[in-house]
Write a structure and sequence with these properties.
- The structure is a homodimer of 414-residue chains.
- The first copy, chain A, is α/β, with parallel strands linked by helices and 414 residues long.
- Chain A is built from 13 helices and 13 strands.
- In chain A, the strands form three sheets. Chain A has a seven-stranded mixed sheet with strand order 3-2-1-4-5-10-11, sandwiched between helices.
- The first copy, chain A, is elongated, with a radius of gyration of 22 Å.
- Chains A and B meet through helix 6, strand 9, helix 10, strand 12 and strand 13 of A and helix 6, helix 8, strand 9, helix 11 and strand 12 of B.
Chain lengths: 414, 414
């Protein structure tokens, strides 16, 4: 008997998470003999628990519609930050998921998300298996943070990196116009892994003087050394641009800007961070006294679909397609991952890695890709990053603005 | 005897200020019988006072070089925020400018800048005239703020408006993924005039629900009314996006976020502002208690050349060309301005307006283009704005990043 497929999106959105969704839908629709309906759950696992389920296989009459979806930022199906309890504690919820899967004749579940989502997907697959229901579950990676293990890089990262490098390039041009000493501190996302902040280095590949300094969560931050670094750069340049990760920490493990934080945590127990850029701005003003400004790249890092990396976009779509192929080939409890075959020419393979080895593991920057002084990155890092931002694939526009796809979210009754 | 032309850039940069520079240089080079050398002064009027002058007519061997310059953000010649004293008080400085003009055989001076720069240009022209030296002086408008009088709009504004509307569209897509009530406050530049903030309304033309609320400096801000507005929108929408100008003020004239400000003023005596977004974020958190985030679009508003409006770029170049034509036709102490002939089709004429009528006058939004409640804009505003963001003219790229022109700033000795 043919089974249906359900797909959902979870965690923070990216500029290409809908490319992966497109890949899943499009590939599933290529196999009408094996897959019945293609459903989407709204707001991730929450949509399954609450049976907020929509039809996806009837919303894309043309290739143009798929193309528009792929150029639309953020999670078209909505997202969630809902953490499933452990199966021992949350039996009711797992039983509910299983019940919904049975009711909707689901045989395939594709979950597009980051570390936490891979954990959720893995637990659900395990529970279903233990309760005699074979639901094949596949993870499709997604995170601008690039911190998933066992994959060369993550869908969504390349576009965020392109946005960051482009913005740094433009901010540096803007900062360099007055004949006075000045500093710009650009605060970039990344709680524990510094990949996004490291990507600022690419502005130099485009000939910019910036950023002269890069601070990452992987290296303990030393305030005195930081001020010395800034002073040394100001000797050499009128304008100094610093890229700093929101997650930089002192040697004792506390966040640099902790004193300015509210101490709030999100549903996963992560500290809610903001403000290291502003903190360093005030520090420089007080201790060095030159003109200084902080800029927070904020949500545009993950939402700027108008600056998608074509490479990232195409890979993200392929990841979705490969996920469906893997499901049909009988795989389950795996995540699609990228294996880099070569840099010149840039070539990747799509592989499968066990969900349980991905769940809750954070892949950080190797120390040897960070400069010995801990305030920049190495040439190896540049070689790693550069292929990921290649290709401009400008979004369809109308009236001078990007056109976004609007999913019909009418919930289906079963 | 042939005279030379000198051009300089002043004030805050824009995404198309180099298009105007391109227009000036290119048009000047078309008249070798009338114009000798084309010089550039580095850092505006300061570069003239300090004789930091470069050759411009030998730096563009190809049309591609000009095209690259036009896609490069920020002031290629550098800028200044230097305010000339009144001629009575600063005779030494005016005498110095006159001396430099004589020494370099300058007959034509084009100054690309905003209100303050037009004031400077006007005073210099007047001084030269009074001291028997006929230097023709022309102003080329430039300001993302769109606050110059006597011109339909200003070069630089359309691109900033396009960046703001595009970012709001993407931020709104990002904000709408979780099934919880939430607010995003987007803080947009604009000290006294709300044009940039008003441009956020264009996101709705692309089908977005955002922004539901717009607060401008032209209307006194009422904190209680604001909270009521937000609550009303939260009744209707899960996600509320608010565009707020950095310059919004209470009825008593004080800035809304004044208590959080440092009280610093720049060289022109303007208050240095930041933080109204953060302030309103904290207000909503404390008084409404929903999820809330503030985003400051910051310098990307004026620097994001990768999102230039093609209309803006072309008009800015034409403004530079028209400036040179006006100089050669014998005009002086005038500024090039735009006159809108029609909206459908969109058509503008280039006209000349007296510098003295432009200097230090701020053009604000007419009250009738703001909704009666003072928290949005009218259809008339949309009709005014829409033509200005039309056209994508994507920048040349290399290695996945925009290519920028790099001017040779070797100072010439006379």
């Amino acid at each position: 008997m043919k089974k249906n497929l359900i797909v959902a999106q979870s965690g923070g959105p990216t500029a290409v998470i809908n490319s992966s969704l497109r890949g899943v839908i499009q590939e599933a629709m290529r196999h009408p003999d094996e897959i019945g309906s293609v459903y989407g759950a709204l707001n991730g696992i929450q949509g399954i628990l609450e049976e907020r389920i929509i039809r996806l296989d009837n919303q894309f009459p043309t290739a143009e519609a798929f193309d528009l979806l792929a150029h639309t930022p953020s999670s078209a199906l909505g997202s969630c930050r809902y953490k499933m309890p452990t199966p021992e504690k949350g039996d009711g919820q797992y039983a509910k998921v299983l019940e919904v899967f049975r009711k909707w004749n689901i045989g395939y579940f594709a979950y597009i998300g980051g570390n936490d989502s891979m954990d959720t997907a893995n637990k659900i697959a395990e529970y279903c298996h233990q309760h005699g229901q074979e639901i094949r579950v596949i993870g499709v990676p997604k995170t601008i943070d690039n911190d998933l293990p066992l994959t060369d890089h993550c869908p969504g990262f390349g576009s965020a990196a392109k946005y960051i490098a482009t913005s740094l390039l433009e901010i540096a041009a803007d900062a360099d116009v007055y004949p006075v000493k000045s500093v710009v501190v650009a605060e970039i996302m990344g709680r524990n892994a510094g990949w996004l902040t490291a990507a600022a280095c690419l502005a130099r590949e485009a000939g910019s003087y910036a950023p002269q300094l890069i601070y990452l969560p992987e290296v303990a931050f030393d305030t005195d050394q930081f001020l010395e670094d800034v002073r040394a750069q100001l000797e050499q340049y009128d304008s100094v641009v610093i890229a700093v990760s929101e997650g930089v920490r002192l040697a004792d493990g506390s966040y640099v800007a902790e004193s300015m934080q509210s101490g709030q945590v999100d549903a996963f127990g992560h500290k809610y961070l903001a403000g290291v850029g502003k903190y360093l701005e005030q520090l420089i003003a007080a201790r060095i006294g030159c003109k200084v400004r902080s800029v927070e790249l904020s949500v545009m890092q993950r939402a700027a679909a108008h600056l998608q990396s074509a490479t990232d976009r195409q890979e993200a779509a392929r990841a979705g397609e490969e996920a469906v192929k893997a499901l049909l080939a009988g795989h389950s409890r795996m995540m699609v991952a990228y294996h880099r075959v070569s840099n010149t020419p840039y070539l990747i393979d799509f592989i499968l890695v066990p969900l349980r080895e991905v769940a809750n593991v954070e892949h950080k920057i190797p120390r040897e890709w960070i400069s010995p002084a801990g305030n920049h990155v190495t040439a190896e890092m540049v070689r790693y990053l550069l292929p990921l931002i290649q290709g401009e694939d400008f979004c369809p526009t109308q009236n001078g603005l990007p056109r976004h796809f609007c999913l019909d979210k009418s919930v289906v009754r079963q």
